[in-house]
Write a sequence for this structure.
């Protein structure tokens, strides 16, 4: 009896233990069925840099060659994995761990679920750097404009603030920079342009350089471009006095020869030319150079120079007078005022004309260009020394009033038969 009872009890204990084990297994199966293990991948996660001063304090700079972003996978229960976000991870490279080959290990840390997930292959990610000595250079800033403003408007003064910037970066790169430029589009502009632009850097060949990882003293350049209604007018140079005897003004030049003005339309319409102050050439033997600042010139109220810093440079070339001679045959002289009862005989076969001055390359000195002419209007029979009238020739001055001797015969005087009229009527 006792053995039977013990056998029953022993059998029940085994059953109970078996039941517990089966229950646990069943519970695990249910749990795994409802919340199985899951894997998830996060891509292109930016790597934060720590302790950057490890390099910068030594006057070094760096560029990330590899490892600025990473991708990684995690494993855990689906209920946990599904609700994890990128922001739940801290991904960083600590420069205090920089190796002799300029490599830094990348760490991936879960900020919320470190005990619930596994980050796979967490120890095989590395950031690779290019490290070299840092250099700082100062370069000017230039404004580059494209397009044209609206018709009737012009671009005037352009100001970049600052007009020079400091750039810090790898010595081998930043030392190539000679200029920083900002591009501004002025197409169709009718008023002043105020904007901010990121500068681009250029080398001596005008090639744009990559500025990634460089540091600038300012991130953006403040630009102001003056745009206003405008009008272009010529600039006129005035002289007073005369050069020394035997000298002449050979050439007068002004740069610029035209100027852009801005202002109200009515005021601009009153301006047809800009007259510079008179320049004395009295007794001058040498060329004269003068400069006039636009800011010092008087112009009508309501009008201003598009470029207030403009400077007008005047060059007056003074040379010794050149001598020119032209012999004119009597037969080539024209006659004004000759009547039908009049005969004109030249007692001089020719006359020599003397000029001083400089002929330009487009002008020749000939009878055709000066058209020598005498006037016999109202004259009676007799001999006369008549002055030759000449057409002006640019750059030349007649040295002395030329004259020619003629004899006039009137019909019925009895002497006209002996005279030969060899004149050229007008």
């Amino acid at each position: 009896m006792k053995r039977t009872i013990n056998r029953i009890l022993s059998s029940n204990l085994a059953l109970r233990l078996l039941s517990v084990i089966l229950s646990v297994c069943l519970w695990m199966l249910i749990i795994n069925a409802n919340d199985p293990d899951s894997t998830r991948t996060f891509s292109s996660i930016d790597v934060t840099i720590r302790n950057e001063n490890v390099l910068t304090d030594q006057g070094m700079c760096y560029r990330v060659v590899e490892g600025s972003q990473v991708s990684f996978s995690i494993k855990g229960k689906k209920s946990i994995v599904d609700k994890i976000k990128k922001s739940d991870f801290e991904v960083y490279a600590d420069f205090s761990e920089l190796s002799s080959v300029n490599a830094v290990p990348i760490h991936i840390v879960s900020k919320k679920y470190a005990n619930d997930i596994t980050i796979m292959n967490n120890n095989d990610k590395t950031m690779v750097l290019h490290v070299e000595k840092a250099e700082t250079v100062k370069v000017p800033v230039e404004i580059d404009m494209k397009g044209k403003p609206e018709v009737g408007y012009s671009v005037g003064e352009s100001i970049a603030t600052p007009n020079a910037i400091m750039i810090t970066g790898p010595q081998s790169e930043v030392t190539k920079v000679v200029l920083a430029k900002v591009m501004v589009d002025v197409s169709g502009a009718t008023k002043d342009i105020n904007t901010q632009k990121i500068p681009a850097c250029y080398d001596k060949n005008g090639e744009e350089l990559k500025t990634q990882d460089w540091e600038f003293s300012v991130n953006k350049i403040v630009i102001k471009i003056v745009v206003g209604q405008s009008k272009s007018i010529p600039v006129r140079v005035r002289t007073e006095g005369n050069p020394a005897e035997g000298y002449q003004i050979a050439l007068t030049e002004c740069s610029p020869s035209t100027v852009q003005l801005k202002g109200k339309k009515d005021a601009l319409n009153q301006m047809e030319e800009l007259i510079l102050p008179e320049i004395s050439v009295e007794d001058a033997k040498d060329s004269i150079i003068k400069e006039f600042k636009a800011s010092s010139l008087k112009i009508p109220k309501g009008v201003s120079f598009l470029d207030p810093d403009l400077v007008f440079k005047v060059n007056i070339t003074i040379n010794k007078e050149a001598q020119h001679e032209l012999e004119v045959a009597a037969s080539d002289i024209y006659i004004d005022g000759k009547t039908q009862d009049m005969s004109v005989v030249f007692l001089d076969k020719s006359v020599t004309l003397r000029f001083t001055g400089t002929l330009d390359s487009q002008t020749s000195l000939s009878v055709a260009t000066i058209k020598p002419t005498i006037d016999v209007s109202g004259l009676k029979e007799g001999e006369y020394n008549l002055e030759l009238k000449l057409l002006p020739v640019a750059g030349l001055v007649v040295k002395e009033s030329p004259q020619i001797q003629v004899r006039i015969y009137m019909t019925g005087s009895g002497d006209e038969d002996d005279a030969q009229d060899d004149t050229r009527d007008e």
The mean pLDDT is 87. The chain has four domains: 37-124, 136-229, 237-320, 323-425.
